[in-house]
Amino acid sequence: MAVKVNLHLTLRQFTNGQEMIEVDGKTVGECLKNVVKKYPAMESSIFAKNGKLSNIVEIYLNLQSAYPNELARPVKDGDEIHVTMMLAGG
Amino acid sequence: MLTGEELDRYGRQIMIPQIGEKGQEKLKSAKVFVAGAGGLGSPVSIYLTAAGVGHLRLVDHDKVELTNLNRQVAHWTGDVGRRKVESAQEKLNKLNPNVTVETLSVTISEENASGLTEGFDAIVDAMDNLPTRYLLNKTAIEHRIPFVHGAVNGFAGRAMTVIPGKTACLRCLYRGPVPESKFAVIGVTPAVIACIQATEVIKVLVGIGDLLANRLLAYDGLNLKFTEFKVQRNPQCEHCAHL
């Protein structure tokens, strides 16, 4: 068992199209860091330079908004994280 | 009161029990503000016009460019160089002359947003940039007007409806400014999202159904998946916390 991290369509360019990555971690932040370890090119799309979440990223934990303090949210095996993006285009 | 022509024109939707003649009359007497006449604004305007919404105010400051034509279906090849609102108005008038299509070729700004939207029954966010989306969100909350958000990128899209003071607004999830960038898009994506927005507007105006409120709908066209996320009001939201 692990935590499932579902990546927004715009992030799948870094995972060769893979939508869901299973990682270990006790918080949302740890899980996302472990995703980035697997796919380092994704880092700047999720995290700002100061290590906080990028302003464009939204995090949902078990389909519920994890805002605010998303990275500190505790997770357990079987939880699902969705990393989505605030879109601007129209 | 609906005319004989209107009873015929809208007959198939009047047959829907949740709409009926009363619902159609509500649509006829409604005023909808559509911000943007581009990829989202084109289909939103077309479907609201076809549905018989009485009054549309369509606002966009741009002119039609060749690069718009893969998605902005209210504009055709011969319209390149024309003001978008004029191009759209011509098609909408031909589609349904019963609908008043008012157009303004202006930039929506802090100075004019409140005046532009006052007195409308719904505001449709069909913009192409985040600052104006947030400005419209704030203005909708100020006027207590339902706000129907939609946005796209590539094959991805999202939509959410805001009922000011009752449900989460666009700003409730705000973390900070985002740099503007040119976005990729194929026309079918804004078509899907715009149809969801138009559906929400019709439901708001008629007063039926379960709105996409406190729910963010994310669309993945590449895998044809819809995912629904629950969102909640932010008690510290700088736009809606005071309501």
Description:
The complex is a heterodimer of chains A (90) and B (243). Chain A contains two helices and five strands; from the N terminus they run ββααβββ. Chain A has 90 residues and is of the alpha+beta class. Chain A has a single domain, classed as Beta-grasp domain (Ubiquitin-like (UB roll)), CATH 3.10.20. Chain A has a five-stranded mixed sheet with strand order 2-1-5-3-4. The longest helix of chain A has 11 residues, at 28-38. The termini of chain A are far apart. Chain B has one domain (4-230): Rossmann fold (3-Layer(aba) Sandwich), CATH 3.40.50. The longest helix of chain B has 19 residues, at 188-206. In chain B, α4 (41-51) links the parallel β1 (31-35) and β2 (55-59). The N and C termini of chain B lie far apart (36 Å). In chain B, α4 (41-51) packs parallel to α5. Chain B has helices at 4-9, 11-14, 20-28, 41-51, 84-95, 113-117, 130-143, 188-206; strands spanning 31-35, 55-59, 100-104, 122-125, 147-153, 156-162, 215-220, 225-230. In chain B, strands 3-2-1-4-5-6-7-8 form an eight-stranded mixed sheet, sandwiched between helices. Chains A and B meet through β3, β4 and β5 of A and β5, β6, β7 and β8 of B.
What is the first-to-last residue Cα distance of chain A?
Answer: 39 Å
**Any idea what the CATH superfamily of chain B is called?**
NAD(P)-binding Rossmann-like Domain
Q: Which topology of chain B does CATH recognise?
A: Rossmann fold
Number of helices of chain A: 2
Strand content of chain A: 15-25%
Q: Within the CATH hierarchy, at the fold level, what is the topology of chain A?
A: Ubiquitin-like (UB roll)
| Helix and strand sequence of chain A | EEHHEEE
What number is the mean pLDDT of chain B?
A: 97
The proportion of residues in beta strands of chain B is: 15-25%
Number of domains of chain B: 1
User: Which ranges of chain B are low-confidence, i.e. pLDDT below 50, for 5 or more consecutive residues?
Assistant: none
Radius of gyration of chain A: 12 Å
Average pLDDT of chain A: 96
